Amino acid sequence: MVEIVEQSTILAPIERVFNLSRSIDLHLISTQKTKEKAVAGVITGLIGLNEEVTWQAQHLFKKRYFTSKITHMNTPFYFRDEMVKGDFSSFEHEHFFEATANGTYMTDKLLLCSPYGCLGKLVDLVFMKKYIHGLIIERNRVIKEVAESNEWQKIIPEQFSL
Q1: DSSP assignments along 33-95, one per residue
Q2: Number of CB atoms found within 10 A of residue 142's CB
Q3: What gap in Å lies between CA 30 and CA 6, rounded to an integer?
Q4: Rg for the chain (alpha carbons), in Å?
Q5: 28 within 8 A of 12, measured Cβ to Cβ
Q6: Along the 162 residues of the chain, how does pLDDT read in single tens digits?
Q7: CA distances from 103 to 34, 120, 146 (A)
Q8: CB 43 within 8 A of CB 53
Q9: Contacts of 139 by beta carbon, 8 Å cutoff, 6+ apart
Q10: Which residues, at least 6 apart from 122, have a Cβ–Cβ distance to it below 8 Å?
Q11: How many angstroms separate the CA atoms of 115 and 134, rounded?
Protein backbone atom coordinates (compact mmCIF):
# COMPACT_ATOMS: atom_id res chain seq x y z
CA MET A 1 0.00 0.00 0.00
CA VAL A 2 1.33 3.42 -0.99
CA GLU A 3 0.41 6.65 0.80
CA ILE A 4 0.57 10.04 -0.89
CA VAL A 5 0.01 13.28 1.02
CA GLU A 6 -0.14 16.66 -0.71
CA GLN A 7 -0.87 19.96 1.02
CA SER A 8 -1.80 23.32 -0.48
CA THR A 9 -2.57 26.79 0.82
CA ILE A 10 -5.21 28.53 -1.27
CA LEU A 11 -6.16 32.18 -0.87
CA ALA A 12 -9.92 31.60 -1.20
CA PRO A 13 -12.83 30.73 1.11
CA ILE A 14 -13.13 27.13 2.29
CA GLU A 15 -16.54 26.60 0.63
CA ARG A 16 -15.13 27.64 -2.77
CA VAL A 17 -12.13 25.34 -2.47
CA PHE A 18 -14.31 22.46 -1.24
CA ASN A 19 -16.70 22.85 -4.17
CA LEU A 20 -13.94 23.18 -6.75
CA SER A 21 -12.39 19.99 -5.36
CA ARG A 22 -15.55 18.03 -6.07
CA SER A 23 -16.22 19.65 -9.44
CA ILE A 24 -16.27 17.24 -12.36
CA ASP A 25 -15.72 20.18 -14.74
CA LEU A 26 -12.58 21.37 -12.92
CA HIS A 27 -11.24 17.81 -12.83
CA LEU A 28 -11.55 17.70 -16.62
CA ILE A 29 -9.53 20.92 -16.91
CA SER A 30 -6.78 19.56 -14.63
CA THR A 31 -6.46 16.28 -16.57
CA GLN A 32 -6.26 17.57 -20.13
CA LYS A 33 -2.89 15.82 -20.62
CA THR A 34 -4.46 12.40 -20.03
CA LYS A 35 -7.59 13.31 -22.02
CA GLU A 36 -9.90 12.33 -19.17
CA LYS A 37 -13.62 12.28 -19.79
CA ALA A 38 -16.49 11.63 -17.39
CA VAL A 39 -18.47 8.92 -19.19
CA ALA A 40 -21.00 7.66 -16.61
CA GLY A 41 -22.62 8.68 -13.35
CA VAL A 42 -22.18 12.35 -12.49
CA ILE A 43 -20.55 13.75 -15.63
CA THR A 44 -20.79 17.50 -14.95
CA GLY A 45 -21.24 19.85 -12.00
CA LEU A 46 -20.53 18.93 -8.37
CA ILE A 47 -20.42 15.33 -7.23
CA GLY A 48 -22.09 14.61 -3.90
CA LEU A 49 -22.41 11.98 -1.20
CA ASN A 50 -23.11 8.45 -2.48
CA GLU A 51 -22.72 9.55 -6.11
CA GLU A 52 -20.37 7.92 -8.60
CA VAL A 53 -18.40 9.02 -11.63
CA THR A 54 -16.68 6.85 -14.22
CA TRP A 55 -13.62 8.37 -15.83
CA GLN A 56 -12.09 7.36 -19.14
CA ALA A 57 -8.46 8.37 -19.60
CA GLN A 58 -5.28 7.59 -21.46
CA HIS A 59 -2.71 6.40 -18.90
CA LEU A 60 0.44 4.45 -19.66
CA PHE A 61 -0.36 4.05 -23.36
CA LYS A 62 -3.78 2.49 -22.73
CA LYS A 63 -7.38 3.68 -22.48
CA ARG A 64 -8.48 3.04 -18.89
CA TYR A 65 -11.70 3.33 -16.91
CA PHE A 66 -11.95 4.25 -13.24
CA THR A 67 -15.19 4.49 -11.25
CA SER A 68 -15.16 6.24 -7.88
CA LYS A 69 -17.86 6.94 -5.32
CA ILE A 70 -18.12 9.65 -2.69
CA THR A 71 -18.48 7.57 0.48
CA HIS A 72 -18.16 10.23 3.20
CA MET A 73 -18.81 13.97 3.25
CA ASN A 74 -18.74 16.65 5.94
CA THR A 75 -19.33 19.91 4.06
CA PRO A 76 -17.07 21.97 3.72
CA PHE A 77 -14.36 20.20 5.73
CA TYR A 78 -13.98 16.72 4.31
CA PHE A 79 -14.95 14.21 1.68
CA ARG A 80 -13.67 10.81 0.66
CA ASP A 81 -13.86 9.03 -2.66
CA GLU A 82 -13.12 5.36 -3.16
CA MET A 83 -12.55 3.27 -6.24
CA VAL A 84 -15.52 1.10 -7.11
CA LYS A 85 -14.01 -0.30 -10.28
CA GLY A 86 -10.60 0.18 -11.89
CA ASP A 87 -7.07 -1.11 -12.34
CA PHE A 88 -5.99 -0.83 -8.70
CA SER A 89 -6.62 -3.40 -5.96
CA SER A 90 -7.68 -0.44 -3.82
CA PHE A 91 -7.70 3.34 -4.14
CA GLU A 92 -8.94 5.77 -1.47
CA HIS A 93 -8.67 9.55 -1.66
CA GLU A 94 -9.41 11.72 1.36
CA HIS A 95 -9.81 15.49 0.97
CA PHE A 96 -9.40 17.70 4.07
CA PHE A 97 -10.14 21.45 4.20
CA GLU A 98 -9.31 23.89 7.00
CA ALA A 99 -10.27 27.55 7.01
CA THR A 100 -7.35 29.90 7.74
CA ALA A 101 -7.10 33.64 8.28
CA ASN A 102 -6.16 34.09 4.60
CA GLY A 103 -8.08 31.27 2.93
CA THR A 104 -7.98 27.50 3.01
CA TYR A 105 -5.44 24.83 3.88
CA MET A 106 -6.16 21.76 1.74
CA THR A 107 -4.74 18.28 2.32
CA ASP A 108 -5.08 15.31 -0.02
CA LYS A 109 -4.34 11.88 1.37
CA LEU A 110 -4.33 8.91 -1.00
CA LEU A 111 -3.90 5.24 -0.26
CA LEU A 112 -3.46 2.99 -3.26
CA CYS A 113 -2.45 -0.55 -3.98
CA SER A 114 -1.75 -2.10 -7.38
CA PRO A 115 -2.66 -5.71 -8.11
CA TYR A 116 -0.21 -8.56 -8.74
CA GLY A 117 1.22 -9.04 -5.23
CA CYS A 118 4.95 -8.36 -4.86
CA LEU A 119 5.28 -7.15 -8.45
CA GLY A 120 2.46 -4.64 -7.84
CA LYS A 121 4.14 -3.41 -4.67
CA LEU A 122 7.36 -2.85 -6.59
CA VAL A 123 5.51 -0.95 -9.35
CA ASP A 124 3.80 1.19 -6.69
CA LEU A 125 7.08 2.15 -5.05
CA VAL A 126 9.18 2.60 -8.18
CA PHE A 127 6.66 4.24 -10.49
CA MET A 128 3.03 4.59 -9.43
CA LYS A 129 3.57 6.77 -6.36
CA LYS A 130 5.42 9.42 -8.37
CA TYR A 131 2.98 9.21 -11.29
CA ILE A 132 -0.19 9.61 -9.18
CA HIS A 133 1.45 12.28 -7.00
CA GLY A 134 2.18 14.28 -10.16
CA LEU A 135 -1.49 14.11 -11.17
CA ILE A 136 -2.54 15.37 -7.71
CA ILE A 137 -0.01 18.22 -7.82
CA GLU A 138 -1.40 19.33 -11.19
CA ARG A 139 -5.01 19.04 -9.98
CA ASN A 140 -4.23 21.15 -6.91
CA ARG A 141 -2.37 23.72 -9.00
CA VAL A 142 -5.48 24.15 -11.15
CA ILE A 143 -7.77 24.34 -8.08
CA LYS A 144 -5.54 27.07 -6.63
CA GLU A 145 -5.35 29.01 -9.89
CA VAL A 146 -9.12 28.90 -10.43
CA ALA A 147 -10.05 29.57 -6.79
CA GLU A 148 -7.78 32.60 -6.53
CA SER A 149 -9.12 34.19 -9.73
CA ASN A 150 -12.60 34.92 -11.02
CA GLU A 151 -12.54 31.71 -13.07
CA TRP A 152 -14.28 29.80 -10.25
CA GLN A 153 -17.51 31.59 -11.19
CA LYS A 154 -17.56 29.68 -14.49
CA ILE A 155 -17.22 26.33 -12.72
CA ILE A 156 -19.24 26.40 -9.52
CA PRO A 157 -23.02 26.43 -10.06
CA GLU A 158 -24.67 29.67 -8.95
CA GLN A 159 -26.55 28.06 -6.05
CA PHE A 160 -23.17 27.02 -4.53
CA SER A 161 -21.23 30.24 -5.16
CA LEU A 162 -20.25 32.71 -2.46
Answers
A1: GGT-EEEEES-SSB--TT-EEEEEEEETTEEEEEEEEEEEEETTTEEEEEEEESSSSEEEEEE
A2: 18
A3: 16
A4: 15
A5: no
A6: 899 999 999 999 999 999 999 999 999 999 988 889 999 999 999 999 999 999 998 877 788 899 999 999 999 999 999 999 998 999 999 999 999 999 999 999 999 998 888 877 877 878 889 999 999 999 999 999 999 999 999 998 765 655
A7: 30, 39, 14
A8: yes
A9: 27, 30, 31
A10: none
A11: 21
**Complete edge-to-edge strand list for the sheet that includes strand 52-59:** 2-10, 103-113, 90-100, 78-85, 62-74, 52-59, 37-41
At position 120, the amino acid (one-letter code) is: G
Nearest to 96 by CA among 1, 23, 18, 3: 18
Q: Which amino acid is at 82?
A: E
Q: At what angle do helices 14-21 and 129-147 cross, to 10 degrees?
A: 130
Sign of the alpha-carbon torsion through 125, 73, 76, 18: positive
Identity of residue 83: M
Burial of 30 (0-12, 13-18, 19+ CB in 10 A): buried
Question: Model's pTM, two decimal places?
Answer: 0.92
